[in-house]
Q: What sequence folds into this?
């Protein structure tokens, strides 16, 4: 799983949203009995046995009887701990690397062994990254770190670990000898105060949760003329211990060698610098080949009785460190699911594909959207997303939190998720429970690439736990985090959901949920300002929702008639009704694709329908203008109502980068958000057609952020800021008008398809 840029705005937003997010592997205190099943808020499901009388219940029970938990665990352990055969330095398995290729071959053989058919490795182009080892020495001191070996990782003494850029070996031909300067948290002012000079190595304390993603630190170091950047963290991520190195996706081009060390190691470097020893020798052997690699998606088939539709069960096999949860356990899960389906003798109606994706963590240099590269290629080049009625994707599926699991899905699957629990076909393990309330999918995993191509999907919800701050993307993501009951519950609902979807002729996509999201994110006051006829907009939206409700009735009718035909043993009628469902699915998948094309917007980490980000920016600008009208007050308010609080929350928080960093860094961030495609291939990635609208107020923001109180600004400066932010507000209102005008037409177009 790949995390993306977070800022103070995003953290504030997540503090709110994560309070209702339940984690994969988080289940409540169940007693083995079936929970109440009316799907109310805060309720959790558990069951010790199948209670459904559906015709497919026996098939699900046979699946449960054939789940081999030893196989699931052993495969996970092999992928995480066999560094000799399937990993490079530090246990990593990165996009296009030798270890990723070796692991693809291994998984191909494993798929053959468990009985999958038409097994193949599907290659797609990527930017190759391979980390081979590193060292850091400070002359005349005890600092002498060596990185790359399993022994060093296990001892917590591992040396620098590279981000996805070329190392000193590749950029400078070997060692980089230069002065190392501690520049604190890496702000523009701290570089200046530290006397940083061109060619120096920057040592920076990063917080990629509360402050900035790694690309911001890289941009600032590059702007200051650094020859290399060494980061360390003790907050945000990597909090499991002071010995942990944390690594994320770089989200920047190949600008300068960049690596991380642990907090323990940083203290030793700082002590050496304080004692006057500041001559460093840095060696990083890390190869990044722009557009020069191939990542492999490994897939196998359980053939259905017909091949018009497919179900996908997937995870990714690239990793950092042990990657026990992220994402070796997901591969163990999907392979164990496939094995149990085959061993139980299940004969699906539709093709079921098992897909192990490569290049999920990273694979596209110089891109805001540098992750889920393998899955993107699978959809773009292989057409794997075609005719998919349901995808089940997995991330971090075997760690425990608070005994309350949750399922994530696209909005159109939310009602179905609760319905499947009410069907009584899911059996939970131990005291694990599953929340009825689902979590919206974000863009943190491979599902987003498939969603771009019209695939509706489920995911085990995994966000919001201490695991993310403590263990994620560090050597602490290891076997010690394993929970068998969580793992088995995730395997159980995977098989149950797959069999349910396979035996439901009409895929249960509820587009009334889409309509509700669009309504929730439509601000009538802003639309009126933009000259939109709000009554006409609402009428068009009502027409869409009415068609969606009518489609729900058609879906229910087909599925009810099918269940009755099966119960009556009328095979001829059942076959005819299934054919009806297949034809209806074509219509609904077309509508789902149109919704993604027309309504889906993405930020760094989030997905939404409609104008949510545009509305937020207008509200933030209103707040900023109100502060300017007052003409005084601290820029950061005690109650979060200062002008800086407003500015940092607009544009999806991109303006925040002008706060601590240079204008050049802020401009690069703005460009990344507005031109977030894979530049090296000149190819649009999954986020390109869904970028949210932004207004460029960076120069203005920089002025505001560099005073402590608005009273420090002159009347002319206040007037200039007021004029600039008013113009930006007008621009954003224009975007809302543009989208609202289009949406009225699109509502009716989708309604016509549904009819």
A:
């Amino acid at each position: 799983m790949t995390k993306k840029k977070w800022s103070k705005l995003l953290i504030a937003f997540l503090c709110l949203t994560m309070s209702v997010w339940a984690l994969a592997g988080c289940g409540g205190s169940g007693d083995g009995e079936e929970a109440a099943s009316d799907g109310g808020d805060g309720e959790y499901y558990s069951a010790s046995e199948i209670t459904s009388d559906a015709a497919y219940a026996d098939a699900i029970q046979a699946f449960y009887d054939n789940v081999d938990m030893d196989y699931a665990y052993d495969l996970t352990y092999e992928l995480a701990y066999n560094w000799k055969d399937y990993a490079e330095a530090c246990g990593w398995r990165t996009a296009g690397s030798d270890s990723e290729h070796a692991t693809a071959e291994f998984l191909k053989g494993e798929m053959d062994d468990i009985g999958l058919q038409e097994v193949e490795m599907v290659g797609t182009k990527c930017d190759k990254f391979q980390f081979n080892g590193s060292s850091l020495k400070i002359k005349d001191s005890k600092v002498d770190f060596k990185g790359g070996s399993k022994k060093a990782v296990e001892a917590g003494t591992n040396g620098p670990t590279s981000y996805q850029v070329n190392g000193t070996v590749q950029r400078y031909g070997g060692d980089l000898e230069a002065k190392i300067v501690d520049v604190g948290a890496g702000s523009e002012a701290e570089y200046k105060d530290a006397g940083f000079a061109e060619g120096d190595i920057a040592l920076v304390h990063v917080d990629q949760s509360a402050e900035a993603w790694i690309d911001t630190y890289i941009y600032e170091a590059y702007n200051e003329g650094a020859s290399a950047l060494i980061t360390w963290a003790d907050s945000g991520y990597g909090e499991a211990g002071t010995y942990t190195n944390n690594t994320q996706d770089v989200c920047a081009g190949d600008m300068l060698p960049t690596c991380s060390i642990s907090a323990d190691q940083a203290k030793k470097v700082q002590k050496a610098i304080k004692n006057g020893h500041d001559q460093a020798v840095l060696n990083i052997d890390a190869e990044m080949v722009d557009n020069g690699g191939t990542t492999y998606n490994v897939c196998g088939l359980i053939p259905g009785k017909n091949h018009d539709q497919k179900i996908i069960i997937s995870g990714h096999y690239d990793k950092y460190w042990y990657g026990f949860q992220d994402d070796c356990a997901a591969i163990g899960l999907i392979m164990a699911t496939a094995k149990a389906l085959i061993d139980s003798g299940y004969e699906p109606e539709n093709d079921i594909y098992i897909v192990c994706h490569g290049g999920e963590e990273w694979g596209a240099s110089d891109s805001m959207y540098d992750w889920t590269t393998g899955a993107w290629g699978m959809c773009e080049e292989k057409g794997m997303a075609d005719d998919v009625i349901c995808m089940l994707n997995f991330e971090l599926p075997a760690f425990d939190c608070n005994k309350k699991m949750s399922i994530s899905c696209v909005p159109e699957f939310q009602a179905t998720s609760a319905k499947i629990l009410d069907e009584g076909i899911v059996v939970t393990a131990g005291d694990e429970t599953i929340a009825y309330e689902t979590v919206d999918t974000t863009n943190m995993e491979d599902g987003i690439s498939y969603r771009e191509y019209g695939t509706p999907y489920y995911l085990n919800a995994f966000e919001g736990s201490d695991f993310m701050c403590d263990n994620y993307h560090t050597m602490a993501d290891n076997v010690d985090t394993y929970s068998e009951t969580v793992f088995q519950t995730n395997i159980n609902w995977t098989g149950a959901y797959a069999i349910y979807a396979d035996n439901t002729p009409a895929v249960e996509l509820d587009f009334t949920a889409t309509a509700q999201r669009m309504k929730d994110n439509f601000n009538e006051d802003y639309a009126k300002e933009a000259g939109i006829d709000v009554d006409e907009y609402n009428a068009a939206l009502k027409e869409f929702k009415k068609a969606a409700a009518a489609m729900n009735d058609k879906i229910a009718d087909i599925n009810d008639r099918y269940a009755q035909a099966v119960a009556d043993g009328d095979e001829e009628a059942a076959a005819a009704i299934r054919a009806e469902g297949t034809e209806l699915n074509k219509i609904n998948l077309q509508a789902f694709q149109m919704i993604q094309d027309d309504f889906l917007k993405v930020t760094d980490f989030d997905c939404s329908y409609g104008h949510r980000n545009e509305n937020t920016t207008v509200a933030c600008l209103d707040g900023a203008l109100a502060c300017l009208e007052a003409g005084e007050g601290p820029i950061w308010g005690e109650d979060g109502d200062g002008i800086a609080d407003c500015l940092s929350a607009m544009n999806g928080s991109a303006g925040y980068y002008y706060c601590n960093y240079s204008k050049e860094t802020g401009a690069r961030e703005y460009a990344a958000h507005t031109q977030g495609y894979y530049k090296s291939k000149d190819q649009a990635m999954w986020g390109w057609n869904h970028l949210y609208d932004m207004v460029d107020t960076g120069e203005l923001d920089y002025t505001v952020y560099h005073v402590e109180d608005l009273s420090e600004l002159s009347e002319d400066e206040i007037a200039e800021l007021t004029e600039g932010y008013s113009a930006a507000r007008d621009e954003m209102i224009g975007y809302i008008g543009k989208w609202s005008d289009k949406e009225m037409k699109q509502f009716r177009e989708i309604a016509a398809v549904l009819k």
